[in-house]
Amino acid sequence: xxxxxxxxTLLGGGEETRWAEQVLITVDAAGMIAAVEEGAACxxxxxxxxxxxxxxxxxxxxxxxxxxxxxxxxxxxxxxxxFWSWRDAMYRAVRRMDxxxxxxxxAWLYVEMxxxxxxxxxEFHYLHxxxxxxxxxxxxxxxxxxxxxxxxxxIPITLLPVLYNTSGFGAxxxxxxxxxxxxxxxxxxxxxxxxxxxxxxxxxxxxxxxPHSLRAVPPDLLAAVLPEVNRLLPGxxxxxxxxxxxxxxxxxxxxxxQRPVEWLLDHAPVDDRWCLIHAxxxxxxxxxxxxxxxxxxxxxxTTEANLGDxxxxxxxxxxxxxxxxxxxxxxxxxxxxxxxxxxxYGARLTSRRRTVLTGGPLRSTGRRLFDAARSGGAQACxxxxxxxxxxxxxxxxxxxxxSPLLAxxxxxxxxxxxxxxxxxxxxKDVLIAGQAVVRDGRHPHEDTLSRRYRHTLERLFx
Length: 462
Hints:
Blueprint: E1 2-11, E2 18-27, E3 33-37, E4 47-49, E5 53-55, E6 57-62, H1 83-94, H2 99-116, E7 118-125, H3 141-153, E8 157-163, H4 185-199, E9 205-207, E10 210-211, H5 219-232, E11 238-242, H6 246-256, H7 260-267, E12 274-278, H8 284-293, E13 296-299, H9 301-306, H10 314-319, E14 323-326, H11 336-351, H12 365-381, E15 396-399, H13 413-420, E16 427-432, E17 435-438, H14 446-460
Parallel strand pairs: 1-4, 6-7, 7-8, 8-9, 8-10, 11-12, 12-13, 13-14
Antiparallel strand pairs: 1-2, 2-3, 5-15, 15-16, 16-17
Helix pairs in contact: 2-3, 2-14, 4-5, 12-13
């Protein structure tokens, strides 16, 4: 047992969430919170942490390899630039990414996530095969590298191997740029079996699956794979890209007669295990259906803005009781507060009002967004996390109370200050399973891992 002491802490979750003073937390050998005592004295054997303490938040949607091209796709092409032209450029960039390079990029990215205040990552992993599309000697090689990178950084990972089979609706054959992603059903299930053998009992790894999208997974394949994976990994997370682009919606309508979210809700067992990534272009019945399903919508505001996707109808969805979390997706930005800020700002720009997503009068916008995202992220990633309470992981962050951005902030206004006062880092410490992985804003391996990352990019783009 280990004892952690915090002067101010945001305890609990849901309606029971509250700020508490002088909080003593007992953490067991597995990194789980065994007890929480408010108004306690700090015993001499306890570790005392300064600054307000918050439960950590999961980054529920990551494509780690795309961090390598962040900022390199901002030059206009000869024709109209779009998500689809950016995707082609991304495919070209990853053709040279071998396992060592991938691990180097992912490990540094995961350090960035921890320093920003994320305490878990959902890795939507589709870079499976060698350059020519041939499986590695171990077909799980690149998945193992995901886990190795997460362990180098010290972040829990929900590994979501991607099922990717076609390039478009109507079973369109994959393109040359997609050959590293492709699986048939049997091979994908064999991959999941390998990973379950390797990580099924690991406390820092949660396994799930990610049918890439309706355009990349034909209906018969989706129907065949889902029950088999559920037998292997009962109740595992299921993540899917859905309705991100207008073209995707139009193509789905042309081939199925239904919109993507409409089709998914009618033909798949969507429930609280599912995470619907983006869901940008949805109708009111689709919004209501998603909220009723109990699924989490995974919003990636900075990537959606960078790619020109559009704006999710957040006000309507939250009014319907919908759940959401945030992810950094292509990692054009690695900042939970920037994702939350732009969720609110998007709602303000479309409605021309302020404090749109607070959920009621006299409430804190930062608190509402933070509470929803930490709860939704934990649900989507399948970890017992996202709250400081007995029975949950001791994944905790502290903020730098001396930061000018938080001057005069107390209680919920600390969250408003963090989210809405700019981009200067204010995360001070990060504890994973009760152990410090970031202390005073620094990760113990950041110099080594950042140097390896720089050398890797120099090699990839030389």
